[in-house]
């Protein structure tokens, strides 16, 4: 569907030494695109995607409520034409066209409008697909400046007069990048690329095919011929493909193909290995697969002096890419669903790899669904909050104010749902039907869990921020004051001077003695605590082995982030080497849903009571992408859309590192060794902050000392800076 | 789709003299049927139907919000099997089957369950059509005792345990009468019957075809051959079919058919006349049409001594039948939409003709849509209230408590919408986006319109009644007290001693001087007034020619009902003769949307600023059906489902009348002349009430005198009563 025109320059700019200033081509003229009611396409497409899950041939859909697109949608825009103009009209659905409120007879596909002021209006019905239009003229073109509504409340009185158009709520249309009339949204397909098998072991009518690494797509038989049964057993591990009775995905085909012809399976699957079993009457030349992927640019880059780390970064990038599809999904083998907590981490990783805003927006819209809200997102209390917080992050990284304005009413109704479920203390707790997830680890989910209060508090802060952006000034202070009173309450309730940590929960008024890592690490990178408490948590929780350890890459993400935020990059680097490196040592070609170093052999593949229940390619396994970009190269936005940003490179034990961090207007290139920092940014106003044992120097900028061996330097766009300095090895925050 | 097995006995029982007691066949064994989430099919089917409207070839959909079915639905039921049982499984959509929470691999179409207790669960996804299932075994069969939900909130923890199924809200499934596995709900089609043209006038390549009366369906060309354009201009009147530039519906076809073959048009149209124009290269043998209709039994019957009235009744019955389709629609030519106010009258007429409960239920469900409620039904304030009141009537006539329980939550959310829009006086008024319709007549729609308050008050009474039936005892008194306080407020505010009537409205605290018929006539048959005020209204409003007259059959319905309720059957009979008879004199073969006797010629066909905008076959034109059944034969239920009922025959100037009124358990046959009343009822406990100048007699029952020439007699089921009496000509209430 998409033309990927920007891949070329990436190879040019990786090495900072030879970095060229590459201007991205801007659209010279108005681009028409397919448009729809915002969120409609995302809901429809996610319904398609999330209902493709199978478990051993059985259909396995989500257990939460699915919404549908609006079946009947109005589109309109006002135009002033200085000369007559012909427009072409393409529509997905049954439709009519009104020009200046006058219905055009028939179903026009071309119309000429006279010069002057005009209102163009189309009304489209489509129950099966999303009502969508594509209009193209010389100056007229369908885009997100068009307005849409799902109830026009316009009626015609007995005398033929059109009444009360005024009360209709119009919003701006949604789009993605369906930019050609023939590029129908309903016909969306990702790209495919043929991949040959790497090794094939044959034993009579039984084959074990290895594609060399985790992959996703459609198995293809070449010159398949004959009659009988053909079975495929997929495995992310060899053991799984061989376990015909317990592998998670399989296909049983009935072949009746007298003449040899290629045969591509209908359903996409995730696998590295495929075991094929065929009846004697069936033969084929070979087996390959069509790799299915979303075309994305790897704008973020990272290389360093440690090859193991480089390998981890590459596998993490591949893992994230495999899970960045129609939407950010959890894992490619099993659910293939959009889980808000999983997606939240993908958003953050995405900002340091693809910087693909449409993927974030699609996912946020699909997760939200429509009104009425009758349960938490994915039914999970915490996942609702990640949805809010993800919007905060999205704005900070992208600066995309119009999306915030678009989604704000949906945020309000989602927050209303949450506020309607508070307990008498104004805190959240899991009510009937709410899944309090937090992590796959044994812990109490009862009553007021401190971790959930923190996420809720951050969600309220997000609401205040977005209310401001959406011009809902009345509610800015309302949400702010709710957030600040909740924050106080959290600390007063859960902070234990004895434990020097936030306690885990309070059940029916009784505080628990438990300390878990969750609330404590979030409190750090949410910056809800003073320095003293942060240090106390570091000592008594994060670096305390007697506090229950984290075994999912999901929560490792936050744990390592908290440690990095406190300057523990060296420690974290070792953790990454051990934990992610541990998976690599076990032969991982993508990162897993869960990894427990104490397990052995095929134990690693079991989960949910099933021997191969675990996903071996899970988005949340890719967090090194985020950690290296944000906490080693040290790049992050200080204001929305990287208008201002900070670069604080921390080697954390590496000899050198270099890479690129994408931003809305271009990339930020960083090279850092113990003696030299090189920076070039394509846009924005940056602040380089670093420590040096001796006075640093830069030929093209002045460096300011901030005391305590800390220095700062301003980075202007388009210029390359080379800073000579002397690394301070052990760095505290 | 349906087998109509009950038509035969109707011919037997029309004449009371030879009436036989016919037992309707009961289903001997459990009947499996296609089931779905209640309301889903109705919403889906109404979307299909309401988006078939065209205006001169242009698509013309509704201007209100359309909802969609739930795309993902769970079905379940618990069974105890005394022996193993095989079931067949048919599904519309992608699905899985769980037995006792265990997912069955693959997509089973047959399963054998062992003896014992079982939970059968199916989960179905279908975006395009409605998720629906049909299950058939020896004792297991899908029916409305199955439960459904659109969000199961059931998740599987890391250990494989299913968690929290408890919070899921299950409701009973919906169905219609798709009783065979092959009888797919998505493939619903009404019946068709070929009808030949009555006359054809040819002029070269131009034909004017007359089908003899108003009809609906698909035009068919026999042995159509050739190449070129073929145009059809439809007319409910000859003038319309001849007006190629202004007729409301038309079809332009491009024919390329070298070999002669029959050709049926794709779109259904309403017409009596069709003008065909063909290019010279096109020829055909003849033109006929396929009449499309919902098969329904004419259970209600009426014949009397006045042939004009008999003709009116027949045309009214045909008019109602034409408009009783997938749903009760307004009219067959133009909108073909479900308008709540129009449908409300169809429900009432239906109780005296088809007594087809499914049509009422389908229509009520389709009108309601789903949550969230964001506008009044059809955007019209009064139409929301008719929706509530229609449910009250439905219960009274049908006794169908389970439907009330099913729809009650939807009533609550609709009423919440209304209550959220009250003004400071606790009254309703038209806010932005609300259409205050009342009737097609010039009048103020501003502020607090007394008519709207009356409908609102009746709606609150309906809520109290239904809250009771649904077991929501807490809200019974809440709605009751709101209704009773509003009723007091209405009388205190709008009753004018000076005008001896309810005033029309109050705008910004200022009462209007206007008196219109609307509130006054509703107050009468709602029985909101004392006798004195009723008589005052009769004199000062209903029989007062200086109060603006009513020109739509729509409001004539209520005006004549009010007069009948006050014993003015003689006057009303004359009105019916004049008004409906007036249309017949103008050649009507079905009754119109509006009729103004002062208009002439083709003026009658104009409306909405278009020369043929008026519908000549409008459901609300059929009200004599209701009036004769309820106020002449005088049959109506006193308690739900006709367990108790009243028969008060009033000849109103006729020499004799006879007929049948359908009830849930059978029909009530009535014959009445000035000297004899004959009654036979198949079920229920009836009370015959009549006036007689002399002491009446009945061989098989005792008659009680109630004073004032009034007598009462109890009617037991299955018995024929013949009462000799002497009619009292002029009857007051």
Distance between the termini of chain A: 47 Å
Based on CA inertia axes, which overall geometry of chain A fits?
Answer: globular
**Text of the CATH class of the largest domain in chain A:** Mainly Alpha
**What's the alpha carbon Rg of chain A, rounded to whole Å?**
28 Å
Domains of chain A, number: 4
Largest contact between chains: A-B, 67 and 67 residues
The CATH architecture of the largest domain in chain A would be Alpha/alpha barrel
- How many strands in all of chain A? 38
Q: According to CATH, what is the topology of the largest domain in chain A?
A: Glycosyltransferase
Oligomer: homodimer
The fraction of residues assigned to DSSP E strands of chain A is 25-35%
Instruction: Give the helix tally of chain A.
Output: 15
Commentary on this structure:
Two copies of one chain form a homodimer. The first copy, chain A, has 733 residues and is α+β, with helices and mostly antiparallel strands. Chain A has four domains: 1-30 and 640-733, Maltose phosphorylase, domain 3, CATH 2.60.420.10; 35-187, Jelly Rolls (Sandwich); 191-293, Jelly Rolls (Sandwich), CATH 2.60.120.260; 369-530, Glycosyltransferase, CATH 1.50.10. In chain A, 27% of the residues lie in helices and 28% in strands. Chain A has 15 helices and 38 strands. In chain A, strand 29 and strand 30 form a beta hairpin. In chain A, helix 7 (381-398) packs antiparallel against helix 8 and helix 11 packs across helix 13 (553-565). In chain A, 47% of the residues are buried. At the A-B interface, helix 2, strand 3, strand 6 and strand 12 of A face helix 2, strand 3, strand 6 and strand 12 of B.
């Amino acid at each position: 569907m998409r033309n990927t025109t920007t891949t070329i320059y990436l190879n040019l700019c990786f090495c900072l030494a030879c970095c060229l200033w590459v201007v991205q081509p801007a659209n010279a003229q108005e681009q028409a695109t397919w448009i729809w009611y915002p969120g409609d396409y995302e809901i429809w497409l996610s319904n398609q995607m999330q209902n493709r899950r199978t478990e051993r041939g059985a259909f396995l859909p989500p257990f939460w409520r699915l919404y549908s697109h609006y079946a009947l949608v109005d589109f309109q825009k006002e135009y002033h034409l200085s000369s007559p103009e012909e427009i072409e009209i393409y529509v997905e659905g049954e439709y009519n066209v009104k020009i200046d409120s006058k219905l055009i007879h028939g179903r026009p596909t071309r119309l000429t409008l006279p010069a002057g002021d005009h209102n163009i209006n189309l009304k489209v019905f489509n129950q099966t697909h999303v009502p969508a239009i594509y209009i193209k003229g010389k100056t007229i073109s369908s885009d997100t400046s068009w307005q849409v509504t799902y109830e026009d409340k316009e009626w015609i009185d007995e005398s033929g007069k059109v009444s009360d158009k005024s009360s209709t709520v119009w919003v701006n249309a949604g789009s993605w990048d369906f930019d050609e009339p023939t590029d129908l949204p309903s016909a969306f397909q990702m790209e495919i690329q043929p991949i040959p098998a790497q090794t094939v072991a044959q034993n009579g009518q039984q084959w074990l095919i290895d594609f060399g690494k985790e992959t996703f797509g459609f198995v293809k038989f070449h010159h398949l011929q004959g009659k009988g049964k053909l079975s495929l057993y997929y495995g992310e591990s060899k053991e799984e493909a061989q376990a015909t009775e317990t592998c998670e995905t399989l296909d049983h085909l009935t072949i009746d193909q007298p003449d040899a012809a290629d045969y591509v399976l209908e359903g996409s699957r995730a696998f590295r290995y495929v075991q094929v079993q065929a009846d004697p009457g069936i033969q084929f030349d070979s087996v390959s697969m069509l790799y299915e992927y979303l075309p994305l640019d790897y704008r973020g880059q990272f290389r360093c002096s440690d090859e193991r780390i480089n390998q981890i970064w590459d596998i993490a990038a591949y893992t994230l890419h495999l899970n960045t599809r129609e939407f950010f999904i959890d894992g490619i083998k099993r659910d293939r669903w959009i889980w808000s907590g999983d997606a939240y981490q993908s958003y953050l990783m995405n900002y340091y790899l693809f910087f693909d805003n449409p993927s974030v927006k699609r996912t946020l819209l699909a997760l939200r669904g429509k009104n009425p809200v009758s349960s938490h997102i994915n039914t999970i209390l915490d996942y609702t909050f990640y949805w809010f917080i993800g919007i905060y992050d999205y704005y900070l990284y992208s600066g995309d104010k119009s999306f915030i304005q678009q989604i704000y009413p949906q945020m309000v109704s989602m927050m209303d749902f949450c506020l309607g479920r508070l307990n008498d203390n104004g805190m959240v707790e899991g009510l009937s039907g709410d899944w309090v997830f937090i992590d796959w680890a044994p812990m109490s989910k009862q009553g007021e869990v401190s971790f959930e209060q923190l996420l809720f508090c951050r969600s309220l802060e997000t609401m205040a921020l977005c209310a401001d952006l959406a011009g809902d000034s009345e509610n800015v202070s309302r949400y702010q004051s709710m957030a600040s009173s909740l924050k106080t309450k959290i600390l007063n309730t859960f902070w234990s001077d004895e434990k020097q940590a936030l306690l885990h929960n309070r059940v029916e008024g009784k505080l628990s003695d438990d300390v878990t890592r969750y609330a404590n690490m979030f409190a750090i990178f949410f910056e809800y605590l003073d320095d003293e408490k942060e240090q106390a948590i570091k000592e008594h929780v994060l670096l305390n082995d007697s506090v229950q350890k984290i075994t999912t890459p999901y929560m490792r993400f936050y744990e390592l982030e908290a440690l990095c935020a406190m300057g523990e990059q060296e420690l974290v680097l070792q953790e990454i080497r051990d934990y992610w490196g541990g998976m690599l040592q076990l032969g991982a070609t993508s990162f897993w849903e869960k990894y427990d170093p104490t397990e052995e052999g095929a134990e690693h593949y079991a989960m949910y009571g099933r021997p191969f229940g675990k996903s071996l390619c899970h988005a949340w396994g890719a967090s090194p992408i985020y950690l290296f970009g944000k906490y080693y190269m040290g790049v992050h936005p200080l204001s929305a859309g990287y208008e201002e940003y900070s670069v604080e490179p921390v080697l954390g034990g590496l000899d050198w590192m270099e890479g690129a961090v994408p931003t809305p207007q271009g990339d930020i290139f960083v090279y850092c060794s113990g003696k030299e920092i090189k920076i070039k940014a394509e846009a924005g106003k940056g602040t380089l902050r670093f420590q040096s044992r001796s006075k640093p120097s830069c030929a093209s900028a002045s460096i300011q000392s901030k005391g305590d061996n800390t220095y700062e330097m301003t980075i202007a766009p388009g210029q390359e800076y080379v800073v000579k300095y002397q690394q301070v090895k052990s760095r505290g925050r």
